[in-house]
Amino acid sequence: MDKTLPQTTIYRQLLFFASQLNNYPIKSLFQLEATRFPNMTVSTGGLILDYSKNQITEEILRLLLRLAEERNVPAVRDAMFSGDKINISENRAVLHTALRSSRTESILVDGEDVVPEIRSVLKRMQSLTLKIHAGEWQGFTGKCIKDVINIGIGGSDLGPRMVVTALRHYRLPRVSVHFVSNVDGHDLESVLNKVNPETTLFIISSKSFTTKETVLNAQSVRRWFLDAGAEVSDIKKHFVAVTANVDVAESFGIPAENIYPIWDWVGGRYSVWSAIGLPVMLAVGVNHFMELLSGAHAMDVHFKYAPLDHNMPVLLALIGIWNRNFLGYHTLAVAPYHEDLFVFSRWLQQLEMESNGKSVQKDGEPVSYGTAPIILGNTGTNGQHSYFQLFHQGTDICPVDFIAVLKPTHSFDKHHEQLLANCFAQAEALMRGADPQKAKEYMLAKGIPAERVESLLKQTQFEGNRPSNMIVMNELRPETLGALMALYEHKVFVQGVIWNINSFDQWGVELGKALATNIHKELTGEAVYEHDSSTTGLIELAKAGL
Ligand code: F6P
Known about the structure:
By secondary structure, the chain is an alpha/beta fold. 47% of the residues lie in helices and 11% in strands. The strands form 3 sheets. Strands 1-2-13-12-10-11 form a 6-stranded mixed beta sheet, with helices on both faces. Strands 6-5-7-8-9 form a 5-stranded parallel beta sheet, with helices on both faces. A hairpin with a 2-residue loop joins β1 and β2. α7 (155-166) runs parallel beside α12. The longest helix is centred in the C-terminal third of the chain and has 22 residues, at 478-499. The site of 6-O-phosphono-beta-D-fructofuranose has 14 residues, from α7.
Protein backbone atom coordinates (compact mmCIF):
# COMPACT_ATOMS: atom_id res chain seq x y z
CA MET A 1 0.00 0.00 0.00
CA ASP A 2 1.45 3.36 -0.99
CA LYS A 3 0.09 5.40 1.87
CA THR A 4 -0.25 4.49 5.52
CA LEU A 5 -3.78 4.60 6.90
CA PRO A 6 -3.43 8.07 8.50
CA GLN A 7 -1.90 9.48 5.31
CA THR A 8 -5.01 8.79 3.26
CA THR A 9 -7.37 11.64 2.47
CA ILE A 10 -10.34 9.61 3.62
CA TYR A 11 -8.77 9.04 7.02
CA ARG A 12 -8.30 12.79 7.44
CA GLN A 13 -11.85 13.47 6.33
CA LEU A 14 -13.13 10.93 8.81
CA LEU A 15 -11.09 12.54 11.58
CA PHE A 16 -12.68 15.85 10.69
CA PHE A 17 -16.17 14.34 10.86
CA ALA A 18 -15.35 12.78 14.21
CA SER A 19 -14.29 16.18 15.56
CA GLN A 20 -17.66 17.65 14.54
CA LEU A 21 -19.75 15.00 16.20
CA ASN A 22 -20.23 16.64 19.60
CA ASN A 23 -23.31 18.32 18.23
CA TYR A 24 -24.77 15.04 17.02
CA PRO A 25 -25.28 12.58 19.86
CA ILE A 26 -26.77 9.29 18.70
CA LYS A 27 -30.23 10.10 20.04
CA SER A 28 -30.37 13.25 17.93
CA LEU A 29 -29.48 11.20 14.84
CA PHE A 30 -32.61 9.16 15.50
CA GLN A 31 -34.65 12.37 15.66
CA LEU A 32 -33.20 13.58 12.38
CA GLU A 33 -33.73 10.32 10.54
CA ALA A 34 -37.11 8.65 10.92
CA THR A 35 -36.04 5.56 8.99
CA ARG A 36 -32.69 5.14 10.73
CA PHE A 37 -33.51 1.62 11.97
CA PRO A 38 -34.40 0.14 8.55
CA ASN A 39 -31.63 2.14 6.89
CA MET A 40 -29.01 0.80 9.25
CA THR A 41 -30.10 -2.79 9.44
CA VAL A 42 -28.82 -5.63 7.32
CA SER A 43 -29.79 -9.29 7.38
CA THR A 44 -28.29 -12.52 6.15
CA GLY A 45 -27.80 -16.15 7.20
CA GLY A 46 -30.53 -15.97 9.83
CA LEU A 47 -28.91 -12.92 11.47
CA ILE A 48 -29.97 -9.30 11.58
CA LEU A 49 -27.42 -6.61 12.38
CA ASP A 50 -28.82 -3.32 13.63
CA TYR A 51 -25.95 -0.80 13.71
CA SER A 52 -28.14 2.28 14.04
CA LYS A 53 -27.19 2.93 17.69
CA ASN A 54 -23.71 4.10 16.69
CA GLN A 55 -22.60 7.71 16.40
CA ILE A 56 -22.45 7.48 12.68
CA THR A 57 -24.15 9.19 9.76
CA GLU A 58 -24.80 8.05 6.18
CA GLU A 59 -22.03 10.41 5.07
CA ILE A 60 -19.52 8.89 7.50
CA LEU A 61 -20.56 5.41 6.45
CA ARG A 62 -20.03 6.26 2.80
CA LEU A 63 -16.50 7.44 3.62
CA LEU A 64 -15.79 4.29 5.62
CA LEU A 65 -16.99 2.18 2.71
CA ARG A 66 -14.65 4.10 0.42
CA LEU A 67 -11.88 3.48 2.92
CA ALA A 68 -12.54 -0.27 2.68
CA GLU A 69 -12.32 -0.06 -1.13
CA GLU A 70 -9.20 2.06 -1.03
CA ARG A 71 -7.48 -0.31 1.41
CA ASN A 72 -8.20 -3.18 -1.02
CA VAL A 73 -10.60 -5.15 1.17
CA PRO A 74 -12.40 -6.76 -1.82
CA ALA A 75 -9.14 -7.80 -3.51
CA VAL A 76 -7.56 -9.25 -0.35
CA ARG A 77 -10.83 -11.01 0.50
CA ASP A 78 -10.83 -12.66 -2.94
CA ALA A 79 -7.17 -13.59 -2.48
CA MET A 80 -8.02 -15.27 0.84
CA PHE A 81 -10.89 -17.26 -0.66
CA SER A 82 -8.79 -18.43 -3.57
CA GLY A 83 -5.95 -19.77 -1.47
CA ASP A 84 -3.29 -17.07 -1.98
CA LYS A 85 -0.64 -17.02 0.73
CA ILE A 86 -1.91 -13.93 2.49
CA ASN A 87 -0.35 -14.99 5.82
CA ILE A 88 2.93 -13.54 4.67
CA SER A 89 5.05 -13.93 7.80
CA GLU A 90 4.41 -17.70 7.74
CA ASN A 91 4.05 -17.97 3.95
CA ARG A 92 0.70 -19.73 4.30
CA ALA A 93 -2.70 -19.64 2.69
CA VAL A 94 -5.67 -18.81 4.93
CA LEU A 95 -8.42 -21.23 4.05
CA HIS A 96 -10.73 -21.90 6.95
CA THR A 97 -13.47 -20.97 4.46
CA ALA A 98 -12.50 -24.01 2.35
CA LEU A 99 -13.38 -26.25 5.32
CA ARG A 100 -17.04 -25.27 4.95
CA SER A 101 -17.11 -24.87 1.17
CA SER A 102 -19.38 -26.96 -1.02
CA ARG A 103 -18.03 -30.29 -2.25
CA THR A 104 -18.19 -29.11 -5.88
CA GLU A 105 -15.73 -26.28 -5.34
CA SER A 106 -12.09 -26.61 -6.20
CA ILE A 107 -9.61 -24.58 -4.14
CA LEU A 108 -5.96 -24.76 -5.02
CA VAL A 109 -2.99 -24.45 -2.67
CA ASP A 110 0.37 -24.83 -4.40
CA GLY A 111 -1.49 -26.20 -7.40
CA GLU A 112 -3.35 -28.89 -5.44
CA ASP A 113 -7.06 -28.97 -4.82
CA VAL A 114 -7.60 -29.12 -1.06
CA VAL A 115 -11.33 -29.95 -1.19
CA PRO A 116 -11.03 -33.75 -1.71
CA GLU A 117 -8.70 -34.03 1.30
CA ILE A 118 -11.08 -31.95 3.44
CA ARG A 119 -13.95 -34.21 2.41
CA SER A 120 -12.01 -37.36 3.15
CA VAL A 121 -11.14 -36.18 6.70
CA LEU A 122 -14.78 -35.22 7.22
CA LYS A 123 -15.79 -38.74 6.19
CA ARG A 124 -13.35 -40.25 8.67
CA MET A 125 -14.73 -38.00 11.42
CA GLN A 126 -18.24 -39.10 10.51
CA SER A 127 -17.31 -42.75 10.58
CA LEU A 128 -15.69 -42.45 14.03
CA THR A 129 -18.70 -40.50 15.32
CA LEU A 130 -21.20 -43.01 14.00
CA LYS A 131 -19.25 -45.93 15.48
CA ILE A 132 -19.10 -44.27 18.87
CA HIS A 133 -22.77 -43.31 18.80
CA ALA A 134 -23.74 -46.82 17.74
CA GLY A 135 -21.70 -48.30 20.58
CA GLU A 136 -19.51 -50.13 18.05
CA TRP A 137 -16.26 -48.50 19.17
CA GLN A 138 -15.31 -50.33 22.31
CA GLY A 139 -12.74 -49.64 24.98
CA PHE A 140 -10.11 -52.03 26.35
CA THR A 141 -12.61 -53.96 28.46
CA GLY A 142 -15.19 -54.22 25.67
CA LYS A 143 -17.41 -51.41 26.96
CA CYS A 144 -18.84 -48.60 24.82
CA ILE A 145 -17.43 -45.08 24.95
CA LYS A 146 -19.44 -42.83 27.24
CA ASP A 147 -17.13 -39.85 27.76
CA VAL A 148 -14.94 -37.90 25.38
CA ILE A 149 -12.24 -35.61 26.73
CA ASN A 150 -10.73 -33.00 24.43
CA ILE A 151 -7.21 -32.08 25.46
CA GLY A 152 -6.15 -28.88 23.74
CA ILE A 153 -5.69 -25.16 24.34
CA GLY A 154 -6.36 -21.86 22.53
CA GLY A 155 -8.03 -22.54 19.20
CA SER A 156 -7.79 -26.29 19.85
CA ASP A 157 -10.08 -25.78 22.82
CA LEU A 158 -12.10 -22.59 22.62
CA GLY A 159 -13.79 -23.21 19.25
CA PRO A 160 -15.11 -26.70 20.05
CA ARG A 161 -15.78 -25.80 23.69
CA MET A 162 -17.80 -22.74 22.74
CA VAL A 163 -19.81 -24.60 20.08
CA VAL A 164 -20.49 -27.63 22.28
CA THR A 165 -21.69 -25.29 25.04
CA ALA A 166 -23.77 -23.17 22.69
CA LEU A 167 -25.45 -26.20 21.12
CA ARG A 168 -26.35 -27.76 24.45
CA HIS A 169 -29.87 -28.43 23.19
CA TYR A 170 -28.59 -30.48 20.29
CA ARG A 171 -26.38 -32.78 22.35
CA LEU A 172 -26.97 -36.46 21.83
CA PRO A 173 -27.30 -38.64 24.92
CA ARG A 174 -24.75 -41.28 23.90
CA VAL A 175 -21.57 -39.44 25.00
CA SER A 176 -20.64 -36.59 27.32
CA VAL A 177 -17.95 -34.29 26.00
CA HIS A 178 -15.47 -32.62 28.38
CA PHE A 179 -12.63 -30.20 27.84
CA VAL A 180 -9.25 -29.88 29.52
CA SER A 181 -7.08 -26.97 28.45
CA ASN A 182 -5.24 -25.62 31.45
CA VAL A 183 -1.83 -26.96 32.43
CA ASP A 184 -3.05 -26.43 35.99
CA GLY A 185 -3.53 -30.01 37.17
CA HIS A 186 -6.75 -29.01 38.92
CA ASP A 187 -8.40 -28.78 35.53
CA LEU A 188 -7.38 -32.31 34.57
CA GLU A 189 -8.15 -33.69 37.99
CA SER A 190 -11.67 -32.32 38.06
CA VAL A 191 -12.49 -33.88 34.67
CA LEU A 192 -10.78 -37.23 35.27
CA ASN A 193 -12.71 -37.54 38.54
CA LYS A 194 -15.91 -37.69 36.50
CA VAL A 195 -14.95 -40.45 34.06
CA ASN A 196 -14.06 -44.12 33.85
CA PRO A 197 -10.90 -45.05 31.86
CA GLU A 198 -12.69 -48.07 30.38
CA THR A 199 -15.30 -45.89 28.69
CA THR A 200 -13.36 -42.71 27.88
CA LEU A 201 -11.97 -41.53 24.56
CA PHE A 202 -9.25 -38.85 24.59
CA ILE A 203 -8.86 -36.45 21.69
CA ILE A 204 -5.43 -34.84 21.73
CA SER A 205 -6.05 -31.68 19.76
CA SER A 206 -3.02 -29.67 18.81
CA LYS A 207 -2.18 -28.30 15.42
CA SER A 208 1.52 -28.25 16.31
CA PHE A 209 1.54 -31.14 18.80
CA THR A 210 4.28 -29.19 20.58
CA THR A 211 2.16 -26.95 22.81
CA LYS A 212 3.55 -27.60 26.27
CA GLU A 213 0.25 -27.44 28.13
CA THR A 214 -1.38 -29.95 25.79
CA VAL A 215 1.60 -32.29 25.64
CA LEU A 216 1.85 -32.44 29.43
CA ASN A 217 -1.89 -32.99 29.81
CA ALA A 218 -1.71 -35.70 27.14
CA GLN A 219 1.18 -37.43 28.89
CA SER A 220 -0.64 -37.28 32.21
CA VAL A 221 -3.84 -38.81 30.85
CA ARG A 222 -1.80 -41.50 29.10
CA ARG A 223 -0.20 -42.39 32.44
CA TRP A 224 -3.59 -42.23 34.21
CA PHE A 225 -5.02 -44.56 31.56
CA LEU A 226 -2.17 -47.08 31.81
CA ASP A 227 -2.24 -46.92 35.63
CA ALA A 228 -5.88 -47.97 35.44
CA GLY A 229 -4.84 -51.36 34.11
CA ALA A 230 -4.76 -50.77 30.37
CA GLU A 231 -1.91 -51.95 28.14
CA VAL A 232 0.05 -49.77 25.71
CA SER A 233 -1.65 -51.73 22.93
CA ASP A 234 -5.01 -50.42 24.26
CA ILE A 235 -4.05 -46.82 23.52
CA LYS A 236 -5.49 -47.15 20.01
CA LYS A 237 -8.91 -47.82 21.51
CA HIS A 238 -8.88 -44.69 23.66
CA PHE A 239 -6.69 -42.03 22.03
CA VAL A 240 -7.15 -40.09 18.83
CA ALA A 241 -5.25 -37.01 17.72
CA VAL A 242 -6.04 -34.00 15.58
CA THR A 243 -2.88 -32.39 14.32
CA ALA A 244 -0.78 -31.12 11.45
CA ASN A 245 2.25 -32.80 13.03
CA VAL A 246 1.35 -36.43 12.36
CA ASP A 247 4.85 -37.86 13.05
CA VAL A 248 5.00 -36.46 16.59
CA ALA A 249 1.48 -37.70 17.33
CA GLU A 250 2.56 -41.16 16.16
CA SER A 251 5.66 -41.08 18.32
CA PHE A 252 3.39 -40.23 21.25
CA GLY A 253 1.84 -43.63 20.59
CA ILE A 254 -1.28 -42.76 18.62
CA PRO A 255 -1.61 -45.00 15.54
CA ALA A 256 -1.87 -43.39 12.11
CA GLU A 257 -5.47 -44.55 11.63
CA ASN A 258 -6.46 -42.56 14.74
CA ILE A 259 -4.84 -39.33 13.55
CA TYR A 260 -7.02 -36.71 11.85
CA PRO A 261 -4.92 -34.23 9.93
CA ILE A 262 -5.31 -30.48 9.71
CA TRP A 263 -3.23 -28.30 7.44
CA ASP A 264 -0.93 -25.34 7.80
CA TRP A 265 -3.51 -23.15 6.03
CA VAL A 266 -5.93 -23.57 8.99
CA GLY A 267 -5.14 -21.06 11.73
CA GLY A 268 -5.61 -22.34 15.30
CA ARG A 269 -8.33 -19.83 16.13
CA TYR A 270 -10.11 -20.65 12.85
CA SER A 271 -9.87 -24.41 13.22
CA VAL A 272 -13.18 -25.58 14.70
CA TRP A 273 -14.43 -26.18 11.14
CA SER A 274 -11.71 -28.82 10.66
CA ALA A 275 -11.17 -32.07 12.58
CA ILE A 276 -10.54 -29.82 15.62
CA GLY A 277 -14.36 -29.78 15.58
CA LEU A 278 -14.48 -33.53 16.27
CA PRO A 279 -15.75 -33.00 19.86
CA VAL A 280 -18.60 -30.97 18.34
CA MET A 281 -19.52 -33.75 15.94
CA LEU A 282 -19.37 -36.29 18.76
CA ALA A 283 -21.53 -34.09 20.98
CA VAL A 284 -24.24 -33.03 18.55
CA GLY A 285 -23.98 -35.55 15.73
CA VAL A 286 -22.90 -35.46 12.12
CA ASN A 287 -25.91 -33.59 10.75
CA HIS A 288 -25.74 -30.74 13.22
CA PHE A 289 -22.02 -30.36 12.63
CA MET A 290 -22.72 -30.14 8.88
CA GLU A 291 -25.40 -27.51 9.61
CA LEU A 292 -22.85 -25.50 11.57
CA LEU A 293 -20.56 -25.61 8.53
CA SER A 294 -23.37 -24.67 6.18
CA GLY A 295 -24.32 -21.66 8.36
CA ALA A 296 -20.74 -20.45 8.19
CA HIS A 297 -20.66 -21.12 4.45
CA ALA A 298 -23.78 -18.98 3.96
CA MET A 299 -21.95 -16.11 5.67
CA ASP A 300 -18.88 -16.75 3.48
CA VAL A 301 -20.99 -16.49 0.34
CA HIS A 302 -22.58 -13.29 1.61
CA PHE A 303 -19.17 -11.83 2.51
CA LYS A 304 -17.77 -12.76 -0.88
CA TYR A 305 -20.60 -11.46 -3.05
CA ALA A 306 -22.75 -8.89 -1.21
CA PRO A 307 -22.02 -5.26 -2.11
CA LEU A 308 -19.92 -3.63 0.59
CA ASP A 309 -22.74 -1.34 1.75
CA HIS A 310 -24.95 -4.40 2.44
CA ASN A 311 -22.17 -6.67 3.57
CA MET A 312 -22.66 -7.59 7.22
CA PRO A 313 -19.05 -8.42 8.16
CA VAL A 314 -17.80 -5.34 6.30
CA LEU A 315 -20.29 -3.07 8.05
CA LEU A 316 -19.54 -4.55 11.47
CA ALA A 317 -15.82 -4.08 10.80
CA LEU A 318 -16.24 -0.48 9.66
CA ILE A 319 -18.30 0.42 12.72
CA GLY A 320 -15.47 -1.06 14.80
CA ILE A 321 -12.87 0.97 12.88
CA TRP A 322 -14.91 4.11 13.37
CA ASN A 323 -15.21 3.53 17.12
CA ARG A 324 -11.58 2.49 17.53
CA ASN A 325 -9.69 4.86 15.25
CA PHE A 326 -11.86 7.95 15.03
CA LEU A 327 -13.79 8.06 18.29
CA GLY A 328 -10.89 6.58 20.29
CA TYR A 329 -12.68 3.72 22.09
CA HIS A 330 -10.22 1.05 23.19
CA THR A 331 -12.51 -1.75 24.25
CA LEU A 332 -15.41 -3.74 22.87
CA ALA A 333 -17.80 -5.71 25.02
CA VAL A 334 -19.88 -8.58 23.75
CA ALA A 335 -23.10 -9.33 25.57
CA PRO A 336 -24.94 -12.41 24.36
CA TYR A 337 -28.41 -12.63 25.85
CA HIS A 338 -28.44 -16.42 25.79
CA GLU A 339 -26.94 -18.47 28.59
CA ASP A 340 -25.64 -21.13 26.20
CA LEU A 341 -23.36 -18.50 24.66
CA PHE A 342 -21.47 -18.03 27.91
CA VAL A 343 -18.18 -19.14 26.34
CA PHE A 344 -18.68 -16.88 23.33
CA SER A 345 -16.73 -13.92 24.71
CA ARG A 346 -13.72 -16.17 25.45
CA TRP A 347 -13.78 -17.51 21.91
CA LEU A 348 -14.10 -13.97 20.56
CA GLN A 349 -11.22 -12.76 22.71
CA GLN A 350 -8.85 -15.15 21.01
CA LEU A 351 -10.27 -14.45 17.57
CA GLU A 352 -10.02 -10.67 17.80
CA MET A 353 -7.08 -10.15 20.12
CA GLU A 354 -4.78 -12.88 18.82
CA SER A 355 -5.59 -11.96 15.21
CA ASN A 356 -5.41 -8.19 15.37
CA GLY A 357 -3.54 -7.41 18.59
CA LYS A 358 -0.57 -6.24 16.52
CA SER A 359 1.48 -3.06 16.31
CA VAL A 360 3.52 -3.71 13.20
CA GLN A 361 2.25 -3.51 9.65
CA LYS A 362 2.80 -6.23 7.07
CA ASP A 363 5.87 -4.44 5.75
CA GLY A 364 7.40 -4.28 9.25
CA GLU A 365 6.65 -0.58 9.81
CA PRO A 366 5.06 0.24 13.18
CA VAL A 367 1.42 1.28 13.15
CA SER A 368 0.57 4.79 14.31
CA TYR A 369 -3.08 4.02 15.04
CA GLY A 370 -5.03 1.69 17.28
CA THR A 371 -5.61 -1.91 16.24
CA ALA A 372 -7.70 -4.59 17.99
CA PRO A 373 -9.81 -3.35 20.89
CA ILE A 374 -9.69 -5.20 24.18
CA ILE A 375 -12.59 -7.65 24.15
CA LEU A 376 -14.54 -8.42 27.30
CA GLY A 377 -17.90 -9.84 28.03
CA ASN A 378 -20.29 -12.13 29.79
CA THR A 379 -23.83 -13.19 29.18
CA GLY A 380 -26.63 -10.72 29.68
CA THR A 381 -28.10 -10.15 32.22
CA ASN A 382 -25.13 -11.14 34.38
CA GLY A 383 -22.87 -8.42 32.98
CA GLN A 384 -25.54 -5.83 33.76
CA HIS A 385 -25.25 -6.65 37.43
CA SER A 386 -21.50 -6.30 37.54
CA TYR A 387 -19.59 -4.10 35.09
CA PHE A 388 -22.34 -2.39 33.08
CA GLN A 389 -22.22 0.41 35.68
CA LEU A 390 -18.97 1.54 34.05
CA PHE A 391 -20.53 1.32 30.61
CA HIS A 392 -23.24 3.75 31.66
CA GLN A 393 -21.35 6.15 33.88
CA GLY A 394 -17.65 5.37 33.64
CA THR A 395 -15.06 7.77 32.24
CA ASP A 396 -14.27 5.45 29.33
CA ILE A 397 -16.72 4.58 26.63
CA CYS A 398 -16.99 0.87 25.84
CA PRO A 399 -19.05 0.01 22.76
CA VAL A 400 -21.14 -3.13 23.14
CA ASP A 401 -22.18 -5.85 20.68
CA PHE A 402 -25.46 -7.21 21.99
CA ILE A 403 -26.60 -10.61 20.75
CA ALA A 404 -30.31 -11.29 21.10
CA VAL A 405 -32.00 -14.62 20.42
CA LEU A 406 -35.72 -14.23 19.83
CA LYS A 407 -36.90 -17.78 20.57
CA PRO A 408 -35.88 -19.62 23.71
CA THR A 409 -35.44 -23.39 23.88
CA HIS A 410 -36.58 -23.66 27.51
CA SER A 411 -40.17 -23.71 28.62
CA PHE A 412 -40.12 -21.41 31.63
CA ASP A 413 -42.83 -18.80 31.41
CA LYS A 414 -42.01 -15.12 31.61
CA HIS A 415 -38.23 -15.50 31.52
CA HIS A 416 -37.65 -14.79 27.89
CA GLU A 417 -39.61 -11.56 27.66
CA GLN A 418 -37.71 -10.32 30.66
CA LEU A 419 -34.39 -11.31 29.13
CA LEU A 420 -35.10 -9.56 25.83
CA ALA A 421 -36.50 -6.53 27.61
CA ASN A 422 -33.21 -6.21 29.47
CA CYS A 423 -31.19 -6.61 26.30
CA PHE A 424 -33.05 -3.92 24.35
CA ALA A 425 -33.27 -1.66 27.41
CA GLN A 426 -29.50 -1.73 27.95
CA ALA A 427 -28.85 -0.67 24.37
CA GLU A 428 -31.44 2.08 24.65
CA ALA A 429 -30.14 3.30 28.01
CA LEU A 430 -26.55 3.39 26.77
CA MET A 431 -27.62 5.45 23.80
CA ARG A 432 -30.18 7.74 25.47
CA GLY A 433 -28.76 8.29 28.93
CA ALA A 434 -30.91 9.42 31.81
CA ASP A 435 -33.25 12.38 31.33
CA PRO A 436 -32.83 14.67 34.40
CA GLN A 437 -36.38 15.99 34.22
CA LYS A 438 -37.89 12.50 34.17
CA ALA A 439 -35.56 11.32 36.92
CA LYS A 440 -36.60 14.27 39.07
CA GLU A 441 -40.29 13.61 38.57
CA TYR A 442 -39.76 9.93 39.33
CA MET A 443 -37.93 10.63 42.60
CA LEU A 444 -40.42 13.23 43.74
CA ALA A 445 -43.26 10.83 42.97
CA LYS A 446 -41.52 8.23 45.13
CA GLY A 447 -41.64 10.71 48.00
CA ILE A 448 -37.94 11.61 48.13
CA PRO A 449 -37.57 15.11 49.69
CA ALA A 450 -36.87 17.88 47.14
CA GLU A 451 -33.46 18.89 48.62
CA ARG A 452 -32.25 15.28 48.47
CA VAL A 453 -33.56 14.95 44.90
CA GLU A 454 -31.26 17.78 43.79
CA SER A 455 -28.12 16.13 45.21
CA LEU A 456 -29.19 12.68 44.04
CA LEU A 457 -29.74 13.98 40.52
CA LYS A 458 -26.03 14.77 40.24
CA GLN A 459 -25.17 11.13 41.00
CA THR A 460 -27.82 9.51 38.92
CA GLN A 461 -27.29 11.43 35.68
CA PHE A 462 -25.57 10.13 32.61
CA GLU A 463 -25.67 11.54 29.19
CA GLY A 464 -25.76 8.36 27.12
CA ASN A 465 -24.33 8.56 23.61
CA ARG A 466 -22.66 5.20 24.14
CA PRO A 467 -22.67 3.09 20.99
CA SER A 468 -23.80 -0.46 20.49
CA ASN A 469 -24.65 -2.98 17.79
CA MET A 470 -27.51 -5.41 18.09
CA ILE A 471 -27.19 -8.79 16.42
CA VAL A 472 -30.50 -10.62 16.39
CA MET A 473 -31.19 -14.23 15.50
CA ASN A 474 -34.44 -16.09 15.57
CA GLU A 475 -33.08 -19.15 17.33
CA LEU A 476 -29.68 -20.41 18.45
CA ARG A 477 -29.28 -23.28 15.98
CA PRO A 478 -26.18 -24.82 14.42
CA GLU A 479 -26.64 -22.75 11.23
CA THR A 480 -27.14 -19.44 13.00
CA LEU A 481 -24.21 -20.11 15.31
CA GLY A 482 -22.03 -20.95 12.29
CA ALA A 483 -23.12 -17.73 10.60
CA LEU A 484 -22.44 -15.70 13.76
CA MET A 485 -18.93 -17.11 14.11
CA ALA A 486 -18.12 -16.55 10.44
CA LEU A 487 -19.49 -13.01 10.75
CA TYR A 488 -16.90 -12.22 13.42
CA GLU A 489 -14.12 -14.05 11.58
CA HIS A 490 -14.70 -11.91 8.50
CA LYS A 491 -15.11 -8.77 10.55
CA VAL A 492 -11.68 -9.38 12.07
CA PHE A 493 -10.30 -10.05 8.58
CA VAL A 494 -11.63 -6.75 7.17
CA GLN A 495 -10.22 -4.79 10.09
CA GLY A 496 -6.83 -6.47 9.69
CA VAL A 497 -6.77 -5.48 6.00
CA ILE A 498 -7.65 -1.88 6.80
CA TRP A 499 -5.01 -1.75 9.53
CA ASN A 500 -2.52 -3.39 7.14
CA ILE A 501 -1.55 -6.05 9.68
CA ASN A 502 -1.27 -9.81 9.31
CA SER A 503 -4.27 -11.22 11.19
CA PHE A 504 -3.06 -14.79 10.85
CA ASP A 505 0.17 -15.02 12.83
CA GLN A 506 0.74 -14.63 16.60
CA TRP A 507 4.41 -13.97 17.26
CA GLY A 508 3.61 -12.08 20.44
CA VAL A 509 2.91 -15.29 22.34
CA GLU A 510 6.35 -16.79 21.73
CA LEU A 511 8.51 -14.85 24.23
CA GLY A 512 6.40 -15.92 27.20
CA LYS A 513 6.67 -19.55 26.07
CA ALA A 514 10.49 -19.32 25.84
CA LEU A 515 10.81 -17.63 29.23
CA ALA A 516 8.51 -20.20 30.82
CA THR A 517 10.75 -22.97 29.48
CA ASN A 518 13.74 -21.41 31.26
CA ILE A 519 11.88 -20.67 34.47
CA HIS A 520 10.54 -24.21 34.47
CA LYS A 521 14.14 -25.46 34.39
CA GLU A 522 14.92 -23.22 37.35
CA LEU A 523 11.93 -24.48 39.31
CA THR A 524 13.03 -28.06 38.74
CA GLY A 525 16.63 -27.21 39.68
CA GLU A 526 18.12 -27.91 36.23
CA ALA A 527 19.42 -24.42 35.49
CA VAL A 528 19.78 -20.89 36.77
CA TYR A 529 19.19 -17.79 34.64
CA GLU A 530 19.50 -14.08 35.26
CA HIS A 531 16.33 -12.13 35.86
CA ASP A 532 15.14 -8.93 37.44
CA SER A 533 14.88 -9.07 41.23
CA SER A 534 11.11 -9.56 41.14
CA THR A 535 11.23 -12.64 38.89
CA THR A 536 14.17 -14.09 40.84
CA GLY A 537 12.35 -13.43 44.11
CA LEU A 538 9.21 -15.14 42.86
CA ILE A 539 11.17 -18.18 41.63
CA GLU A 540 12.79 -18.47 45.04
CA LEU A 541 9.43 -18.20 46.77
CA ALA A 542 8.03 -20.95 44.58
CA LYS A 543 11.03 -23.21 45.13
CA ALA A 544 10.71 -22.77 48.88
CA GLY A 545 7.01 -23.68 48.63
CA LEU A 546 7.38 -26.62 46.25
O1 F6P B 1 0.16 -20.00 21.67
C1 F6P B 1 -0.89 -19.60 20.88
C2 F6P B 1 -1.38 -20.73 20.03
O2 F6P B 1 -0.47 -21.05 19.04
C3 F6P B 1 -2.74 -20.43 19.42
O3 F6P B 1 -2.67 -19.66 18.27
C4 F6P B 1 -3.28 -21.80 19.21
O4 F6P B 1 -4.67 -21.80 19.01
C5 F6P B 1 -2.87 -22.45 20.51
O5 F6P B 1 -1.61 -21.90 20.81
C6 F6P B 1 -2.79 -23.95 20.48
O6 F6P B 1 -1.90 -24.41 19.52
P1 F6P B 1 -1.85 -25.92 19.09
O7 F6P B 1 -3.13 -26.27 18.47
O8 F6P B 1 -0.70 -26.01 18.13
O9 F6P B 1 -1.58 -26.73 20.34
